[in-house]
Amino acid sequence: MTEKIILGIDPGTNIMGYGLILIKGNSPELIKMDVIKLNKIENQPLKLKKIFETTLELIDFHKPDEFSIEAPFYGKNIQSMLKLGRAQGVAIAAALYRSIPVFEYSPRKIKQSITGNGNASKEQVAYMLMNLLKIKEAPKYFDATDGLALAVCHYFQKGAQENKKAYSGWKSFLAENPERKA
């Protein structure tokens, strides 16, 4: 059985969320999810430095095999979009600096992957993740579950494909996955 660690980052210039999952066989397990608060850092370049350093620290400590991040998207406020793009860029640079493969997913793809609905709310995404990963207590910030959603989305999109088994029908699927029964 192969194991893999996936780091998901929800970049932001005030709060950066992240989540780490361990894949054992066909099941994701929560390693950690949290946020890095950047709102007290007034200088934008210093915020970017902190994002880069924190991403490197997470990589060096947890040794992820893959890195998942939200893809840039078009927003109405061009200044916010530029700041977010810079935050995404430095987080990606940190992963590439440590030779970790980077995968990007749109917000819609992430929500679709976790909840089945590309227009799901942050609350719905958090609820689904809590059920899937058996998390007892909701995090204080949705940025943490957003980062975790990126890791789980990547697992569903790529990791699950690598570990996919062929089933002859529902009966064989349920026999192999009894925990999936309602």
For the structure shown, list the relevant keywords.
Nucleotidyltransferase, domain 5; alpha/beta; globular; 182 residues
Summarize the structure.
The protein has 182 residues and is α/β, with parallel strands linked by helices. The chain contains six helices and five strands; from the N terminus they run βββαβαβαααα. Strands 3-2-1-4-5 form a five-stranded mixed beta sheet.
Description:
With 182 residues, the chain is of the alpha/beta class. It has a single domain (3-180), classed as Nucleotidyltransferase, domain 5, CATH 3.30.420. Helix content is 48%, strand content 21%. It contains 6 helices and 5 strands, in the order βββαβαβαααα. The chain has helices at residues 44-62, 78-97, 107-115, 122-132, 142-162, 170-176, and strands at 3-10, 15-24, 27-37, 66-70, 102-105. The protein has a 5-stranded mixed beta sheet. Helix 2 links the parallel strand 4 and strand 5 (102-105). Helix 3 packs across helix 5. It is globular, with a radius of gyration of 17 Å. The chain starts with a strand and ends in a 6-residue tail after the last helix. Residues 163-167 have low confidence and may be disordered.
